[in-house]
Each structure stands twice: as structure tokens, then as C-alpha cells.
Amino acid sequence: MRRVVVTGLGAVTPLGVGIRRTWKRLLDGHCGIVNVNHRDSRFTDLPCQIAAVVPNGTRQEGGWTPSEWLSRDEERKMARFAQYALAASEEALEDADWKPTSSEQKEMTGICLGSGIGNFDEIYNTVVAYDKGGYRKVSPLFVPKLLINLGAGHISMKYGLMGPNHSATTACTTGAHSIGDAARFIAFGDATVMLAGGAESCIHPLAIGGFARARSLATSYNDSPEKASRPFDADREGFVVGEGAAMVVLEELAHAKARGARIYAELCGYGCSGDANHMTAPKENGEGAFMAMKKAIKSAGLSPSSIDYVNAHGTSTVVGDAAENAAIKALLLGPGGKHTARDVNISSTKGAVGHLLGGAGAVEALFTVLAIHENTMPPTINLERLAEGFDCNYAPKQAQDRRIDVALTNSFGFGGTNSSLCFSKLQS
């Protein structure tokens, strides 16, 4: 198996446009969750009126202005989630100093980009237009803007990427699956470089209304949105929908070394599992999460004692956080693992950026890579009162400086789909 390393990072998040800005604001304890009533009056009818939104503004100020990233034609043809992904891809490729020009370079470079829901606004608006005006009100771009794989398609066309062109759509596990699958394309020799990640943009009254009806969202914090997402806290009550994108450049180790690329970390393990339990709820003991993490550690050839940090899925739901916490403790404590719960380091970054759905696993993978690269454990903001059974170290409200050589990042989705990625410092 060929070894896979991370050489480029790019992100568009509710903390700002650009991975460096996002990371700094994350470590400083900022939150990107806001009240969204001003966007659409229909939000006022919902029990949840908040979301984690990519801020508008100039690129220099860390805000989003489409014309600074896309041509007018690209903006017209691309769904919002794909626009975010294109901007994150540009940053990641520049960060990696990899812009393939020769036919050989283009053929060895692929893309794996997914989304959980995709272009929700386009679906809603077209259904309304069709209902009122019939066939002639349907845009010829409707289907191309609807297809989730067109995000990968547009980016591959922009940069001439002729390697694997792949899209995963596995709910909130999408970003992690995309990165793990891309790494396997490299490990098995189907590509030498892969651009991989996830993206989402569905801040729409109907989408949030659907999650609210499923009783998945925080509903008591409409007047204090920055406090709504509170992973592991005793007062947590649900997640907050977020938008954005994150992309990573993965590269075969020898190729990265040969061209003198900066290497952030090695992607050394990838594990997947299924709960086979319920449409939206995990098993209370976190069995599916446990299996995904166990497989990731096994594929990395490591023991539980090697894990210095876990970037948890940690969505701030009552059942989900408890199940994941139980799974992490079951895996990392005991023979071959840590001695006490306080030795287990876990944090959730969703308090700061909300839940990016199909983009969550990707942005959290980037946070995990930077945690290793900078030996910094990002904080779990809003963690003021630990719930019963939560006795690990969760970096409450403040980042922690600590040696992080190996880390896991978890992602779980509706339908019981689970994935865990294992990153490490590069070892000779």
C-alpha cells in the first residue's frame, strides 16, 4: 500500500473564508452561529431560527463575495455548495503548490467531493415555479445544478483534473468518506494526488423546518445563538445547521517528498461501519462508532494507547453525544489503552461552526490535521457543565497546547453510517 500525506488545506466556514482565519478564530473561541430571521420571514414560524452561516464580505476581510472567486458564468451554473467547494479547492491547491499543467500531471490528479443535501434552494424554487408556470419555468440548468457530483465535475473541469472523479453522499459522514475514499484511490495506485472534501449550503426554512420536525435541533437559543451548540454540556438539546466547505490535497508520500511539498500529516487509517439500528438515532452504547474507530486504528497499525486526541462528531444532541462518548471510552480505556478517563482527550468543534452536514467531516478533518501540525487541541466552546458520564478531558472553552502525534476524527450520519479517519505526524 502506498502511503498518503496531506499537503494542502482550504476552507470556507461560518468562522470566515480561508482555513487560517477559520483556525485562528476557532482557537480564540469565536462562534459563527447567528439568528437568520433577516434572511427570510418564514424563519420566524420555526422553533429553530438560527444557523451557522458563511459571513458576507470581502475576501481580504475573510468574508464571502462570489465574484471574488468565480466568473459570472461559473456563478450562474454552480450551486452554492459547489461555489464554496471551488473556493476551498483553490486555497487548498495553492497551499499545496500543486496546479497540474502537463497531461501526465492532470491524469494523476483526481477529485472526491460530496454533499449531504446539495442544492436545496434550487429544488424548492423550481418546484414552486413549475407549479405556478409549468414546464417553461424550469431552467435548463436545473438538473446540472441539482446533481451533487457536479460539484466535483465543475472543479475537475476548472483545473483539468483527469484522475478519479468521485462523489460520496452519505449524509453527515460525507466529508469523511470523501477523504477516506480519496486516500484509498492513492493507496491502490489509481491516483497520485487527490483533492477531497465536502460542502453544504441549505440554510432554507424548509430544510431547517424538516430537521426541527425530526426534533434534531436546538430550539431554546434563538435570542442567544452563539450559545446554542454545546457539545457534551448537560444543557445541550440539539445541533445547529451550518454551511461551508473544506478541501484537502492528499498526495502519495514519495511524490510529495520528490517535489519538496510541505507535509502537514499522514492519513494512516480509515474505518467505516453501519449501525443497522435506526433512521436517525445511534445505538446508545455507540457500537457503530466504536467499530469505525477500531477499524481506523487497526488499518493504521496502532494501538488505542497511541491516540492523543479525538475530534468528535459531537453534534450537541443528547443521545448522539452520549453514545459517541461511551464508544470512545470503551475503545481507548483499559488494556492496550489509556489508564484513566482524564487521559482521553476529546473535543468537538461544532460549538463554533455548527453542523456542516455533508461538509462536517471535511472541515473537522482539517481541524484534526492542524491540531497535529501545531500541537494544539481546539476547544469545545459552551461547555460549562459536564453531563453525567462525561469524565474525559474535553478542552472546555479554551484551546490546549499538548503534544499530538496521532488523532482520530469521527463522522456519523442518518441511516447509521459511520466513519473515522486516523491522522498522524509523518514518521520515517
Automatic annotation (TrEMBL):
SUPFAM superfamilies: Thiolase-like. Residues 1-425 form the Ketosynthase family 3 (KS3) domain. GO terms for biological process: fatty acid biosynthetic process; secondary metabolite biosynthetic process. One of its GO terms (cellular component) is mitochondrion. It holds the Pfam family Ketoacyl-synt_C. The active site is at residue 172. Belongs to the thiolase-like superfamily. Beta-ketoacyl-ACP synthases family. InterPro entries: 3-oxoacyl-ACP_synth-2, Beta-ketoacyl_synthase, Ketoacyl_synth_AS, Ketoacyl_synth_C, Ketoacyl_synth_N, PKS_Beta-ketoAc_synthase_dom, Thiolase-like. It comes from Aspergillus avenaceus. This is 3-oxoacyl-[acyl-carrier-protein] synthase. PANTHER family: 3-OXOACYL-[ACYL-CARRIER-PROTEIN] SYNTHASE, MITOCHONDRIAL (PTHR11712:SF336), POLYKETIDE SYNTHASE-RELATED (PTHR11712).
